[in-house]
Write a structure and sequence with these properties.
The complex is a heterodimer of chains A (182) and B (438). Chain A has 182 residues and is an alpha+beta fold. Chain A is 36% helix and 14% strand. Chain B contains 18 helices and eleven strands. The chains are: A alpha+beta (182), B alpha/beta (438).
């Protein structure tokens, strides 16, 4: 994994995690997105410090951070692709594979656990048709994972759907929550 | 009753006074409530004079360690010709803790003002607020408030017309509990993996970007404007008569098996029994309290009897064998199995270990494996000894204290509730929930 596109956006053939060929890689950092990244650089004394924000911009644009995108970011920030991958894999929020249209994270850490979070997880797995944690539903709509403490323990059980933060979810409320994310 | 509801009459609302008021989030709304008076005053003061007021107030770090804030600031060598930095720790990921989230959601300008004052007091022109990536709403509110303050010239190249530069920027994390550890946070901000650094050097000597840095928790910084406006003595007086070492007000996040979970702000030294029963409404109907983890998941578990005898300040918590920590109070009722909950906590630490240190990487994983085996009814008597051995190896031997934090609930759980562990081993019965007595 070393021949990602240059910052200028040379086309490269990207592959899905399953190895199928798909469309040529289109760079993320052009136009307004590139300008946003350049503006961020003013805030820090090093270019490397914009790595996490740059990866967030990739994920916002593409839904996940592909090896090609890592190479693109590496090129822009003067880092190697291996370095960027090392950073991406450290953090739990960057998706290294495509996920369902709606990415559902249910907190199950102790404070939520004592309030019945396990049953909330079960309800999501059942009503989304995912069946299992980390598996995307057959219709591609949902992926459900357990997450560690979301910092809202007094509102058990907090659930994140994409970037929406939903408090006080109970198993009974799960169908209603899902209706908003058809 | 604590936020999100109306404050209980026995709360002392300083930081939480404007929680829930939408206008307090705006610059104008904040100014109407007395906001930015402290910053204006501070920008005309000598940094050392500000440090002295904060020292006099007795303010201690609210992130977990309780280090005296004014003293921490005074470690920054003013006029050394190097850029200085302030980091605001808004990573809030300690299970049980959700107070900083509320400060940022409702009073973003209080935090910006606190950051700007602290930056000036340590000779820094730049402050970064590092917010965990999952806090989507606080991130949005803070970003908006920072932009508003900047556009109005409250912060920026000529903060409040003082001729001084104070930049405040929001930086979004990406999911990692360990990034709340101060040096891990600095690495993360620099665009690196969030591994804690070996200390020394301490951040005041070489921190963010290798430069002198001070790092403070959200709640610590949000208290600073109040101290400047009202004076150190005012803050210092909010304390237990016989314990001047813990001063001011403290936000307590309360969660778990309790009638009214939420954030409560009380003066240091508040009696824990009254807090749990009067303010938080006691246990859920038909239940009784069994155990409390008062300071976030990293502090020792205490029994309800111990909790009822305690005072809610740094020393009061130490007196009953635990710590104030981040004041994330996790309450468990008689329906909970302690071994099961300790096992879940161990799993948290195993998941969050950054894996640099052998004792932590292996210890958290083994501890989890053994505890889960015990909970499943497959434990042996030796397992209990192994857990204590492991805990011993995990305490005081690693780069940061995440490893110690995993050991704390295990050791205290075994000490305080040995029968529950033994019952799982000898009778091989899995814990069942007692019936509700109505
Ligand atoms: C594993 C670990 C996680 C931590 N998480 C946080 C956190 O989320 N927020 C925080 O303010 N402090 C956290 N701390 C404490 C910080 O290292 C540091 O002591 C604190 O931010 C200093 O600010 P203060 O003096 O204002 O408390 C953590 C410490 C450790 C060891
Ligand atoms: S104690 Fe654990 S989390 Fe802390 S530095 Fe070592 S391995 Fe990482
Ligand atoms: S444990 Fe679920 S939000 Fe903290």
């Amino acid at each position: 994994m070393s021949h990602g596109p240059s910052a200028a956006g040379g086309a490269a053939i990207s592959t899905t995690p399953h190895g199928h060929q798909s469309e040529p890689y289109v760079p993320v950092f052009t136009g307004e997105t590139k300008a946003r990244l350049d503006a961020l650089m003013e805030r820090y004394p090093t270019r490397m410090a914009t790595l996490l924000p740059a990866l967030w911009m990739v994920q916002e644009a593409r839904g996940w951070v592909s090896p090609e995108a890592m190479a693109e970011v590496a090129g822009l920030l003067g880092l190697t692709a291996a370095y960027v991958k090392g950073v991406v894999t450290f953090y739990t929020m960057y998706h290294q594979h495509p996920v369902g249209t709606h990415f559902i994270q249910v907190c199950t850490t102790t404070p939520c656990h004592v309030c019945g979070a396990e049953d909330v997880v079960k309800a999501f797995l059942q009503h989304t048709g995912c069946g299992e944690l980390g598996v995307t539903s057959a219709d591609g709509k949902y992926t459900v994972i357990e997450v560690e403490c979301l910092g809202a323990c007094g509102f058990a059980t907090p659930v994140m759907v994409n970037s929406d933060f939903i408090e006080s979810v109970t198993p009974e409320k799960v169908p209603d929550v899902l209706k908003r994310y058809g | 009753m604590g936020f999100p509801f109306k404050p209980h009459p026995r709360e002392s609302t300083v930081l939480s006074k404007h929680f829930g008021e939408a206008e307090a989030r705006t610059l104008d709304g904040w100014k109407v409530r007395g906001g930015y008076r402290a910053l204006e005053q501070a920008l005309g003061m000598d940094p050392v004079a500000i440090q002295n007021i904060v020292k006099e107030s007795g303010l201690r770090g609210r992130g977990g360690a309780g280090f005296p804030t004014g003293l921490k600031w005074s470690f920054m060598k003013l006029g050394d010709g190097k850029p200085h930095y302030l980091c605001c720790n808004a990573d809030e990921s300690e299970p049980g803790t959700f107070k900083d989230r509320e400060i940022m959601r409702w009073t973003p300008h209080a935090l910006i003002e606190g950051c700007a004052i602290a930056a000036h007091a340590i000779g820094a022109e730049t402050a970064y607020i590092y917010i965990r990536g999952e806090f989507t709403e606080p991130l949005e509110v803070m970003e908006r408030a920072v932009a508003e303050a900047r556009n109005a010239g409250v912060i920026g190249p000529n903060a409040m017309g003082s001729g001084k530069r104070v930049d405040v920027w929001v930086h979004k994390g990406a999911g990692a509990y360990i990034c709340g550890e101060e040096t891990a946070l600095m690495n993360s901000l620099e665009g690196k993996r969030g591994n804690p650094r070996i200390k020394p050097p301490f951040p005041a000597a070489a921190g963010l970007f290798g430069m002198p840095t001070t790092i403070n928790n959200v709640e610590t910084l949000a208290a600073v404007p109040h101290i400047l406006v009202n004076g150190g003595a005012w803050y210092k007086n909010m304390a237990r008569a016989d314990n001047p070492k813990s001063t001011g007000t403290k936000l307590w996040s309360v969660c778990g098996n309790v009638s009214r979970p939420g954030n409560y702000e009380v003066q240091m030294g508040f009696p824990f029994r009254e807090f749990l029963y009067d303010l938080c409404g006691g246990p859920p109907r038909g239940r009784t309290f069994k155990a409390v983890i008062p300071g976030g998941s990293s502090v020792p578990i205490i029994t309800i009897a111990e909790a009822e005898a305690a005072f809610m300040d740094y020393e009061g918590m130490v007196a009953v064998g635990t710590m104030l920590g981040s004041a994330g109070c996790i309450v468990m009722d008689d329906a909970q199995s302690i071994p099961r909950q300790v096992a879940r906590l161990a799993r948290f630490y195993a998941h969050e270990s950054c894996a640099q240190c052998t004792q932590c990487r292996e210890g958290t994983a083994w501890t989890t494996k053994i505890l889960e085996r015990i909970v499943a009814g497959d434990g042996t008597a030796e397992d209990l000894d192994t857990l204590l051995d492991l805990a011993d190896n995990m305490t005081g031997k690693t780069i940061c204290v995440l490893s110690d934090s995993c050991a704390a609930p295990v050791v205290s759980g075994l000490q305080k509730f040995p029968d529950e562990f033994k019952a799982l081993i000898t009778r091989k019965t899995v814990h069942t929930v007692p019936a509700i007595v109505a």
